[in-house]
From TrEMBL:
Its cofactor is Zn(2+). Binds 1 divalent metal cation per subunit. Transmembrane segments: none annotated. The active site is at D233 (proton donor/acceptor). This is SMP-30/gluconolactonase/LRE family protein. Pfam families: SGL. Residues 33-288 form the SMP-30/Gluconolactonase/LRE-like region domain. The keyword Hydrolase applies.
Length: 304
């Protein structure tokens, strides 16, 4: 039986989302800073970034862990587009890229209004194929997760990219350090984490919610939830509309109104997470030096 101490029940509804007999499995240890997990169901594999080590790793149930790409150009967050191709945020190139079926890499965005992006961090793809990503300055603040540089952008924006036309639009311009992002299951809401407290505890450590208007712009921005331990980094939603967020003490789960209903305790600071497995009911957790997983009683909303 799993140790009950890995679960914090803040609301009885959280019990319906977890499997109390399912423990926390450590799949790999040996990263410097694990980030950006993405599940490939058709290949039965998990990919993630080990940013400072300039590599992307792959885990399969049959073969364990191997190197997927090195050097990785300090890749951080990843997702898949509707054709199943890998979409990546690269700190080193200050760009968003797509890995084609033949393994070649296409640059999707690296400039906005004539200036270099800061360091694209995390990314999601909407059902219409558009790519939404955040652009904080973490990758240019030092040479540890990228290459130290002066920002050329006047703000740290959230962007919407149309990969068909190449049109790039800043959909939110008032974040301090925008980080993880996730759509609600029906794509009427976009959640975006602000992790600015990572370098100044007086700054935000919250997730904001925005209404998606006409499928391509955001309105009615408001604070959705606060993280009471650490910062929000990566976030995901499940099919019931609950939001799962990384935090210093594990993974926090919020209901669709922003109420904290439970936590999964993790031994290391969590950076990011994703749902995966054949039924999308396995939560993969990138936490500092390790990658963990735990089975849940709910499935993730993200596709593919």
């Amino acid at each position: 039986m799993a140790e009950a101490s890995i679960y914090e029940i803040h609301d009885p509804r959280f019990r319906q989302l977890i499997v109390t007999s399912a423990g926390l499995d450590e799949l790999y240890s040996g990263c410097r800073w694990a980030e950006g997990p993405v599940w490939f169901n058709d290949a039965n594999q998990l990919l993630w970034s080990d940013i400072p080590n300039q590599r992307m790793l792959r885990w399969t149930p049959e073969s364990g862990v191997s190197v997927y790409r090195q050097p990785s150009n300090f890749a951080n967050g990843h997702t898949r587009d509707r054709q199943g191709r890998l979409i990546s945020c690269e700190h080193g190139g200050r760009r968003v890229t797509r890995t084609e079926v033949d393994g070649s890499i296409t640059v999707l965005a690296d400039h906005f209004e004539g200036a270099k992006l800061n360091s694209p961090n995390d990314v999601v793809v909407k059902s219409d194929g558009t790519i939404w990503f955040t652009d904080p300055t973490y990758g240019i603040m030092s040479d540890y997760e990228g290459y130290r540089a002066v920002s050329e952008q006047p703000a740290r924006n959230v962007y919407r990219l149309d990969p068909t036309t190449g049109a790039l639009a800043a959909v939110v311009k008032d974040f301090i350090q925008p980080n993880g992002l996730a759509f609600s299951p029906d794509e009427t809401i976009l959640y975006v984490a602000d992790s600015a407290a990572s370098h100044d505890e007086s700054l935000p450590r919250h997730v904001r919610a925005f209404d998606v208007v006409d499928g391509n712009r955001l309105a009615n921005g408001r604070v959705f939830c606060l993280i009471d331990n650490g910062i929000p980094d990566g976030i995901r939603t499940d099919v019931n509309g609950n939001l799962w967020s990384s935090a210093a003490d594990g993974v926090h789960c919020f209901d669709p109104t922003g109420k904290l209903i439970g936590k999964i305790r993790v031994p290391q600071t969590v950076a990011n997470l994703t749902f995966g497995g054949p039924r999308r009911n396995r939560l993969f957790i990138a936490a500092t030096r390790s990658v963990y997983s735990v089975y849940l009683a709910v499935s993730g909303a993200q596709v593919p």
